[in-house]
């Protein structure tokens, strides 16, 4: 199994972006890191080792980019400034990262999977819901999806990046595209450290169900914690179904 560390030039971010890539063939999976936003998170936390069987079988090809979460959702500054950073990152993913991955896979239209833990789950679900023709499924583990709650004065700047805000109003062609092209899997444990995520996972799951967006929502046991050893088990279980 190949393992590569790359620096991808991003005009939208005005810098080179760290990217780790694992595997040789398979369905491309974009992994969004948690609060630290670093590209090597899944490698250092044992997530890649846990997924080695899927990589060895040629089921998955994993791409782990860094994010600018420390300047956006968990950053400082005005809401407008922070969300401008996030939109620049979104443009990087769509205009630079996706074409790079498709060229790397030698498949110009191949659909992708997204995944993430904690705040990475917000990223994973956002990209699938906003760009369903590109991202055919998303796996969110232990996520908090009310992005507006990360801001003192969210206003209109955050609306389209808060699934709990915009999903209730999805209608017409945008809703039809999501229904036809993507599937959202949300999983969270019932352990004490997961309590902040349980309610928002249930809330987003109910919204997806009400809008008839293909989804699967799972609540693991009280021993399931907000830690990588549990995310390893969840990723192995659900990505085997999605890949």
Share of β-strand residues: 15-25%
Name the CATH superfamily assignment.
Alpha/Beta hydrolase fold, catalytic domain
CATH topology: Rossmann fold
Which CATH class is shown? Alpha Beta
Number of strands: 8
The appropriate CATH architecture is: 3-Layer(aba) Sandwich
Low-confidence stretches: none
What is the overall shape?
Answer: globular
Question: SSE layout and pairings?
Answer:
Layout: E1 3-10, E2 15-22, E3 27-32, H1 41-44, H2 47-50, H3 52-56, E4 60-65, H4 79-104, E5 112-117, H5 119-130, E6 135-141, H6 155-158, H7 163-166, H8 172-181, E7 183-188, H9 195-210, E8 215-219, H10 228-242
Parallel strand pairs: 3-4, 3-5, 5-6, 6-7, 7-8
Antiparallel strand pairs: 1-2, 2-4
Polypeptide structure, described:
This protein has helices at residues 41-44, 47-50, 52-56, 79-104, 119-130, 155-158, 163-166, 172-181, 195-210, 228-242; strands spanning 3-10, 15-22, 27-32, 60-65, 112-117, 135-141, 183-188, 215-219. It has 243 residues and is of the alpha/beta class. It has a single domain (3-242), classed as Alpha/Beta hydrolase fold, catalytic domain (Rossmann fold). Strands 1-2-4-3-5-6-7-8 form an 8-stranded mixed sheet, sandwiched between helices. The longest helix is centred in the middle third of the chain and has 26 residues, at 79-104. The model has no long low-confidence stretch (mean pLDDT 96).
């Amino acid at each position: 199994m190949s393992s590569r560390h790359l620096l991808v030039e991003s005009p939208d971010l005005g810098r080179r972006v760290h990217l780790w890539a694992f595997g040789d063939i398979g369905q491309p999976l974009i992994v969004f890191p948690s609060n630290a936003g670093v590209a090597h998170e899944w490698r250092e936390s044992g997530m890649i080792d846990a997924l080695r069987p899927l990589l060895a079988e040629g089921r998955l090809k994993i791409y782990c980019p860094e994010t600018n979460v420390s300047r956006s959702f968990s950053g400082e500054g005005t809401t407008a400034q922070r969300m401008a950073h996030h939109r620049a990152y979104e443009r990087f993913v769509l205009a630079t990262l996706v074409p790079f991955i498709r060229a790397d896979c030698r498949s110009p239209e191949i659909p992708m999977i997204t995944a993430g833990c904690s705040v990475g789950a917000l990223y994973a679900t956002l990209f699938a819901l906003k760009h369903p023709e590109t991202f055919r499924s998303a796996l969110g583990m232990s996520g908090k999806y009310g992005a507006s709650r990360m801001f003192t004065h969210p206003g209109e700047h955050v609306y389209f990046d808060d699934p709990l805000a915009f999903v209730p109003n999805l209608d017409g062609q945008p809703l039809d595209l999501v229904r036809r092209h993507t599937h959202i899997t949300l999983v969270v444990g019932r352990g004490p450290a997961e309590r902040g995520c349980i309610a928002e996972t249930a809330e987003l799951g109910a919204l997806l169900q009400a809008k008839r967006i293909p989804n699967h929502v799972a609540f693991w046991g009280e021993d399931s914690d907000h830690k990588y050893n549990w995310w390893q088990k969840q990723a192995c279980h659900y990505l085997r179904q999605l890949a």
